[in-house]
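Note to self: the last two entries modelled the partners one at a time, which told us nothing about the interface. This time every component goes in together.
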Amino acid sequence: MAAKRSGARSTRSQRTSGRLQPVQESRSEPPLSRERIVATAVELLDAQGVDGLTMRRLADRLGSGVMSLYWHVDNKEDVFDLALDSVLEYRGPQMVESRDWRGQVVHMLEDWRASMLRHPWSASLLPRRALGPNILGRLELLSKTLSRAGVADADLNVAIWSLWNYVMGATISRANFDLSDDGRAATQQRHTRLSERYPTIERSRLLLDNDWDGAFRKGLGFLLDGLSSRG
Amino acid sequence: MAAKRSGARSTRSQRTSGRLQPVQESRSEPPLSRERIVATAVELLDAQGVDGLTMRRLADRLGSGVMSLYWHVDNKEDVFDLALDSVLEYRGPQMVESRDWRGQVVHMLEDWRASMLRHPWSASLLPRRALGPNILGRLELLSKTLSRAGVADADLNVAIWSLWNYVMGATISRANFDLSDDGRAATQQRHTRLSERYPTIERSRLLLDNDWDGAFRKGLGFLLDGLSSRG
DNA sequence: AGTCGCATGGTACGATGTACGAGTCAATCG
DNA sequence: CGATTGACTCGTACATCGTACCATGCGACT
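The predicted structure of the combined assembly is written out below.
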């Protein structure tokens, strides 16, 4: 019936039973798989940006027909979801009961930001997509760490969301500006033209300051100060 | 030559010279204009979301041909830019030298957030677009207020970006969740299924807490605490 | 009357996401 | 053994999109 296979994605390749890799070992492409599709989608997104990902190009890179993709994937949105989540995995210290909760939080959040900046499309994509398991995993970790650090339950959610918000905003902004001022001259020019209308911005060189990492760290410090002044 | 008119958009309607409203007053549509296009685009976006905005639909609503739009607008991206910025205007107290800088900042940022939530598409759009004049205006105001409040110049940019980041992240997240849990049952169901994997999130009901406004205000308070502990 | 700039919009093209259904091949069953 | 089944691949086709190109209309000025 060609049921298109919904839900149970558990059919993990027809292999692992009979002979191993029956035919064409090094010849042509390995068989399609969800993982391979996602990995290639990430490659394509890295290389061409959000608009560069089309099902046809994706199929080309995979050496397959376009419609074959739809066996493994529901639709293009699905590809975006999977690519996004695949990029946000965190292999940090999951199980450290260290006294240095603040260091742990900072580490995870900086890693989060770095992961997204390594794939700038992810930042602009995230606002539109649902929370994948890797994102939830990070939230869980954050939750656990803060809770163990003694943050009151009443403030816990606020603390988590504040940190989440800060990281999201910082990363999205950064990923964005990075693209928009590839032409330094353009920025410079626009800046001087705007300086009359926005003198304070001009004076503090807000838009030209590019110590993003430092600003991120410093602002995160301020936020954590505020959060821990309660607990 | 049909120079398509670039740059100087200053030609403000052919009117204001001879007679007023020459022909067809109440008959059919008023003439096309950048303003009318943008206003209608916002309507459409409000009604149908980001994917609902197509040039054809926009032209239909305006009672014009599709290609007529392109006289007033460069391309679809342009429409997005204009619609986005048009929604972020701020008519707050621009010139108050009040002692209550904190109240002023909170007011502007809450208004910012509210403006974006009134048009949920704006949140997911903003990360991809350049900074329009209204956004810059808000940054300028923020800059001025903080500066007058005595924030050290060295910390000024960090403070501004921190607040910006917080607001962006909060608004984007909120606009997103709002859409995704239209079906309460689905959320509830998914939640219980996830509870085993993410116990702390489950316990604090992080994903079900919907006092967004309160959380926003509270978190903003924390951040401002942290920021002013320096200055 | 002729010219020119602003403004409108019909037609057409290339690209996209994906529905549909026909094809292949290995494993399973009678 | 042949028949059946189910996992998987993919060519064709279609609706819809953004927009390039070009013909046209219209008011004002020469």
